[in-house]
Amino acid sequence: LSNSPKWHKQNYSYKNNNNLHKKYYSTDTNLGNYSKVVTDFLSDKNLNAVICFEDLQLRETKDKINEYSKNKAGIYLIFNKVTLDYYIGSASTNRFYSRFYKHLISLIGSKIVKNAVRKYGINNFAFIILELFPEEVNKENNKKLLNIEDFYLKSLLPNYNILTEAGNSFGYKHTEINRIKMKANYSEECRNRIGLLNRGKKLSEIIVERIKKKAFLRPSYNYSEQGLANLKNKSKPIILYNKDGTVYGEYSSIVEASNSLNCSIKSISRALKSNSKILKRTWYVKYK
């Protein structure tokens, strides 16, 4: 089976992590209604979108996203129509609109997306649903959704993502190694492995040139192992809970949680000392 993330038929199967998964979606046939930059992007990336929303600054568009995404779960993509950069994430059942709102409206999701929205304006972004998950997401089947997200991340390498191993609100851990992978240049061995996933995909010369330029401009990140170890040793392990009591994630230190959540160490420490234990009005945080 092809490793390209393009499927033409409903329920087409693909392999991921040695398990057989099926893709369920209703392919949007209104590509002609999208802007040329979005249509070209989807074509270049070999993607069949479920649906795409533009003009995100309009109240009408927000309402459409909210209405369409009710009782749905799956994979979404946030696309910068100016720079062609993008972010990929997964949404549990009834969480598409929440993800859209946090990343693009309230700007409390990804810091990279937040800075891009402030620089280019929300009118220059598109919210694209790539795939719908066929079941209501729960603790038992959540890993299946993460496997699908992980496939998209490793196939498309979205440069707005910090993490390369999928993780959402059911408690799968974010690892420091995967955060750093997306910040730093990939080793030759890693590029070769990713190349196997991308085999058969065709990119336009313009996009290839932009990718090359960005790779050269990326700074090198030098981390002091002793410095990180000293910071982490001062902190106890902590656990974050969703408001419904399910575990969001476990972290070995406040430093690790801060990096993973894009939240300051001071904010986490303040929440731990407070009576409410509420962090960013989203989670409860406690020492393990």
From TrEMBL:
It holds the Pfam family NUMOD1. It comes from the Eukaryota. SMART domains: GIYc (SM00465), IENR1 (SM00497). The keyword Mitochondrion applies. Keywords: Mitochondrion. One of its GO terms (molecular function) is endonuclease activity. NCBIfam families: grpIintron_endo. This is COB-I1. It comes from Talaromyces marneffei.
